[in-house]
Amino acid sequence: MSTTLPALTPLEDSLFLTLYARALDNRRPQPILGDAMADQIVRTLDYDFGQLHVDTNLVLNVALRARKLDQVASAFLARHPDAVGLDLGAGLDTRFERLAPPATVDWYDVDFPAVAAARRRLIPEHSNAHVIGADVTEKDGLDTIPTDRPAIIVADGLMGFLTHDELVSLWNRLIGHFPSGEIVFNSYTRFAIWVARHARGTKSVADLVKFPGMDDAREPEGWNPELQLVREILLSREPEVAQFPPAWRRYHRLAAHSTAWSRTGTIVLPYRF
Ligand SMILES: C[S@@+](CC[C@H](N)C(=O)[O-])C[C@H]1O[C@@H](n2cnc3c(N)ncnc32)[C@H](O)[C@@H]1O
Fold first, then answer.
1. How far is the CA of 12 from the centre of ligand 1 (A)?
2. Which label site among 70, 135, 136, 217 has the fewest CB atoms less than 10 Å from its CB?
3. What is the dihedral of CA 230, 139, 205, 59, to 10 degrees?
4. 81 — phi, psi (to 5°)?
């Protein structure tokens, strides 16, 4: 039976782009992420995914960045089985299912109330997975999350939709909320933001992009003295590129020779605090 969701705002609607990209990755002969539940949700929804014009580049980037974010989160949870996990701007992502954390971890998926309602309809419940309907730029949006446990905070595809000041203020509130933790997100250089505004595959979100881009991964260390860059993950240099279709594999292997060139693509940045 197909599910029709109430109309979402264009910003909320951006979740379909990444959800569909993960579903298409799952349908590739050699998936990068292999998120069968994303595929299942897409098949359930009464939504015209074709009009999004999701291309191979977006599929590969969305799948690989999700995999890298998952790896950082998974390593953190292995070290801190008492942690809380947050997925900010979670959309309909099934990260909790992919990570399958132990029952000692409490996981919070945060997105606008309408998206939170859609999650509750479409994604199976777990006693330690919680959905919060809130705007992450609002000061009290995350107040119900425990403050006495280490936190792994993931933001996949959110950063581009926040202004620089909103992002700095959000990070500072998170650092003040938890005793310690890691924040990991996919970042964009100024050039990547320009591409996102002009590429066909991201046309549906072009007018919603507010972040100017960040060329220096160490910049957030200046936002809060507790923030420390762990490493810069340049997707072109990651081993999964071997599973890309030949033309994309050749492009990324060439790009991998140059740090500047690799930075024009997708970057995943983990910080500890
Ligand atoms: C491109 S989608 C990514 C969704 C999900 N992380 C994924 O990878 O599929 C961006 C998400 O961020 C959410 N979002 C954007 N701004 C937000 C805000 N201020 N507060 C809460 N959620 C926000 C949108 O509703 C949308 O679900």
1. 6
2. 135
3. 40
4. -70, -5
